[in-house]
Every structure is written in structure tokens, then in C-alpha cells.
Predict the 3D structure of the following.
Amino acid sequence: MNHFDLTSDGWLPLRRRDDGALLEVGIERALTEANSFTELVVELATQVPALLRQVLLPIVADAVGLPADRAEWLKRFEAGAFNETELNQIQKYLAEHGPRFHAFGDTPFAQAGELEAVSGETKGAGLLVATEFTGNNVPLFGSRTEAEPPALTAAEAMRWLVHAHCWDTAAIKTGAKGDGKVKAGKTTGNPTGPLGQLGVLIPTGRTLYETLLLNLPIGPRGALGTPQWRRPPAGPGWDADGYPDGFLGLWTWQSRRIRLIPEQTAQGVRVRRVIVAAGDRMRELPEWEPHTAWKYDKPVGKSKAADRKPRRHVPGKAIWRGLEALLAVHQSDLETGSVETSSLLRQAADLRSDGTLPEDYPLRVEAFGITYGNKSAAIDDIYHDLIPLPVNALQADAEVYGALVEMTSQAEQLSRAINHLSADLRRAAGLDPIPWDKGQRPGEQLLHLLDPVVRRVLGHASGLDDERLSAVLLAWEQVAYRITREVADTVFAAVPESVFAGRRAGGEAESGSPPGLGDAERRLRRNLSTILQRAAAQWRAA
């Protein structure tokens, strides 16, 4: 049966830069032509960081090395592609480790080739696919049952394999023969994959080459460690108290023991059955994890040390709504405690501060996350967002930084103003305000309508002088005012005109009752004038 060579057979779905065509290519072509591709185009967004961390980044770092300093980073950046020496290093590296980059065979990539379940059974391949229902999560009237697992191509199976190492659900896993920690045919207490505990942030460039460079930490080669394919092939045993020896050990962490079981069909090799067992557990997340922002919870009791944890993304909340935390190159205080952005965004800030990265460079930040359900045994929600991030905004003393933080703060304040309006009008009608955790409050609708406006500003703020930046912010406030008034009008329209004066719940209007329609309108106008001061000043001048 074909081993399916990951270095040459097509399995990495990439968009070509010149014509936008989608191609599935092997590792070697993806890297040697990295400047001709723009992005990975995958089944599920969370496959992107999995493919970068489990495959592409560690190969580049191990074969070519990390940039030793900013000067070397700049040299690589200005080249725009791997030079002849680097290409030879990559090709030689892939040839040297070729047998470890086969999907099937004696030492299959990221798998335990001889893995067997204690029960002797295998599971449907849907166990790897994050969007498939399995176990107790199969809907009663679902279109496919576990008895009809998906037939994955070799390319699909490999993408979901690396995804499982990064994002797999927690709880019970199949017990493997030869695993001394198996009890009653299973293992318990398994954590989620390492990325499942993070709010992942990926700096993104114009090409795959630039994205790879933006995600390589500057530093000595000694910080690299060892990728999984330069270690002995995995068996059924696993480390219950492991710790990565460097970036390569972290990026290629084997959080599961997995075996793909291929079969030959009329359509070619397909994977319908798999084994997924317990894998290595990390005793703690390294403080040098480069792909997440951090929060510092306030010390509890007599403790003097703040608890440093990864900052998770909030489902349904656009990443720009946490822009101040995203731009916190140095630890900064928010109402919820101190925050700090990822080390790779701090690195981009340093590269901008000394002129290495041009001020008009179109940096983007892509955010990924997974929200798990009860006991983290099922996936509840997938988070993915992408915003342009002006590199000047990564400097707290820059005008762009202050302007963008102010803009996103204004959006949040406008949302609260609309929610206050809704609460006032509901009280005037004798109703209770909409609870913050139930239903959809009109402030969320406003933020949804403001979202494309904010993204447009973020995409055009790079390289603006102070005068043009002020003009952009004035235009933002004018548009924000118009949209806020439109949402406010829909809130007013939902209230009967008979309650111009406020009334108590179940009673007539009387002294001391909640504000009526007129009072609510005046309060809204006052809030808008306070929040949107540039636009308000222009109105007064007119």
C-alpha cells in the first residue's frame, strides 16, 4: 500500500498568490515555493495553527535555524523567499528524515505505528474530525451514525491527525496494549490538546514565507529543542509529567497516541478506522509559549505573585474588542487584571521600533480557539477571527496606538449606552431590563453593525500622519453616531407611545417612577456627546 509521502504528495491546501488558485502540495513544495503562496485554506480554521506548529514551522526552524538577531531577521525579510542555501538545507533535511514523514508504514508521521487497543477494537475516523458527532454526542436524527464513519483521504486524515494532537477533547481515551497506566481498558484524566488551553494568536504576513518568518522567535539555536520526528518512534507508553525541551518540542508535542488504519478502495486509500489513546501530558504550559496573550490574575489573600495564565478568546466576541490587551506589548492593567500580548507580537513591536519592519507593513493577526463542553469531553464552539493590525499600534507612545484603543473603547461605550437606553425604556413600560446573560441585548446588535467599520479603520490606519489620522477618527465617529441612532430608533419603536412618562411595574405613571421616553432620549444624547466628542464638537460648531 502507498505510504503517502508527506514531503511530496499533496496534502497541504494552499492558495497561490498570483491567481488565487487552490493547490494541495507536499511539504517540500510548500516551503521551497513559500513566497508564491498566501495562506492555508483548510476544512476547519483551527487546522491552520496545527499545520504551522506540528509541521511547517519546526521543519524551517530545525533545517534553517532561528534568526539569531534582528539583523538576520531583516536579511531574511528583505529576501522575501528562502535563498539557495536555505532551500538546499530544507531539501537535505527532508531527505534525511524522509521515512518519518510517511502517513503509513512502520514509523508513520505523528503516530504510534504498532498501537493496538486493549479491547482489540478500533474507532470510526470521525473521532479525529472535530466537526463530527461521536459517542454520546451523536444526534438522535443525525445524517450519519458511528456505524458509518467518514472515509477520509490520506490528506484529510493527516490534517485531522495533527489537529487532534493540538485540539483533541479531554476525558476518557482508549486503553492501549503495553500502556502500564491503563485501568479497566481505558485512561482517564486526559487534558485537552495543548492549544485547547490557549487563545491562539498567529501573526500573518502577505505570503506563507512571511507568515513563517513572523512566527519564528529570534534567538539562539539552543532554544529549539527536538521535534518528534527526531525522537525514537512513539510506542503505547506516555509521559504523565512531561515538559518540552524547546520550541520544537512544544510545537510538535504528542498529546495523543494515534494510529491511522488505511484501507485500499476503488477510490484509492481511505481511512475509516483509527485508534486514539492517551499521550504525553505537559505538567505546565511554558512561560515562553509564543502563540498566546497572557493575563495576570490579581493575587489572592497573602499571595504576592500574580497567577499568569493564557488569555482565552471569548466566543462570539470580535478580537478587536480586546484590542488593548492585544496591543499590550508591556504588561498593562485592565479592569480584569494585568494583561500582556504574545511574545511574537512583542517581537513585531521591537522590529517596528528600530525600523526593521516598515510602518506601512500590512500585518494581520489571526485568532483561534475552541470552547469545550462538560468536562471538556466535547467541542461546543470554534473561534476564528482575523484583523489587520497596524504595526505602529504596537508602540504605546504612538498616535495610532492611542487612536485605535480610543476607537474600540468608544464602540464598547456606545454598546453600553444602547443597553442603558433599552433598560430605561423597558422600565418605563413596566418591564424588567433584558438580563446580561440571556437573550440578545441591542448593544450586541450595535457592535455587530460597527464591526466592519472598525475593521476598515484598522486596515487603513498604517502610515497615516496625525492630520489624516484625526480625519479618519472624525469620520469614524460620524458613522458610529449614525449607526447608533439607527439602532436606538429600533429600540424606541418597540415601546408603546403611551408610556412617554415612566410607570412602575404594573402601575400608573407617578412621581419617582423610572424615566420616560423623553428622559431616555435626553440621556442617550448626553451619552453620545460624551463618547463621540469630535463629532459633537463639529455639530456644535455647525
